[in-house]
Amino acid sequence: MADNISVKDIIKPENLVHKRSSVMTDNIMHYCPGCGHGTTHQILAEVIEEMGIQQETIGITPVGCSVLMYNYLDIDMQEAAHGRAPALATAIKRLLPEKYVFTYQGDGDLAAIGTAETIHSCNRGENILIIFINNGIYGMTGGQMAPTTLEGMKSSTTPYGRDVKLMGNPLKITDIVATLPGTYYVTRQSVHKPGNVRKTKKAIRKAFEYQKHNKGTCFIEVVSNCPSGWKMTPVESNKWMEENMFPFYPLGDFKVPEE
Fold first, then answer.
1. How far apart are CA 49 and CA 198, in angstroms?
2. What is the 3-state secondary structure (H, E, C) of the chain?
3. Dihedral, CA of residue 236, residue 62, residue 76 and residue 125, to nearest 10
4. Can you give the CATH number for the domain in which 42 is found?
5. pLDDT exceeds 60 at position 1
6. Which positions ≥6 away from 46 have C-beta within 8 Å?
7. Is residue 21 one of the residues assigned to a domain?
8. How many domains does the chain have?
9. Domain that residue 118 falls in
10. Is residue 9 a part of any domain in this protein?
11. What is the pLDDT of residue 5?
């Protein structure tokens, strides 16, 4: 009987464990092996597909590793100047309030050159979603120290580790925006393990659904690794992240709306 079973018999909805989201394009991603960007892209696409909002979603990406997102997600995308994604998202959402609008930014972008745009957009309560990938380093431009680089953490511009007396303390931008009255939902998650991927996907879905309420800014930080910038293998970088990043940037919700 086994000889009579065809591939079509096996590939049925009840046997399907995972499939590529139809919102993803067929382009091969440029991200380094083990990087959290690819996983975050995939679950973002899955949420958009499952909610049926592909034609109603607009994404904004600035300079950084995320700049080529338009190659991978088949939705309307707009590139912003470095750090200016929240400002551009503000304009788009105000002009097209019925659309689902999100930004996708790295820590060097959002928490450095874009600090003002981030803080003021959140403080005004712009009805957008900000997705913030925090790997504690400038991943695209050579591994330089970022505002989120940990104390003692090595980078191309801090070869002996970050010295807070000279360079200041790491910036906990998510903690800051959670205190602003304009933020509606603020959480910090990760995508390094299946359970964490599910939590992050759930957070993204919530954030899109909250846009219907028009109650303010949703802000999701995703603590990620940077194997290339950290000069580690993907496995080593995940372990280092758990032992060093998570104690300083603990995962969990900061502000959750009352249902």
1. 16
2. CHHHCCHHHHCCHHHCCCCCCCCECCCCCCCCCCCHHHHHHHHHHHHHHHHCCHHHEEEEECCCHHHHHHHCECCEEEECCCCCHHHHHHHHHHHCCCCEEEEEEEHHHHHHHCHHHHHHHHHHCCCCEEEEEECCCECCCCCECCCCCCECCCCCCCCCCECHHHHCCCCCHHHHHHCCCCEEEEEEEECCCHHHHHHHHHHHHHHHHHHHHCCCEEEEEEECCCHHHHCCCHHHHHHHHHHHHHHHCCCEEEECCCC
3. 100
4. 3.40.50.970
5. no
6. 21, 23, 201
7. no
8. 1
9. 31-141+172-241+249-255
10. no
11. 67
Reported as a single tens digit per residue, the pLDDT across 9-44 is 666 666 667 778 999 999 999 999 999 999 999 999
The residue count for the chain: 259
What is the β-pairing status of strands 76-79 and 217-223?
unpaired
The token pair at 122 is 């959140």
On the 0-12 / 13-18 / 19+ scale of CB atoms within 10 A, 140 is middle
Threshold 0.85, pTM exceeds: yes
Question: What residue has token string 């996907």?
Answer: 201
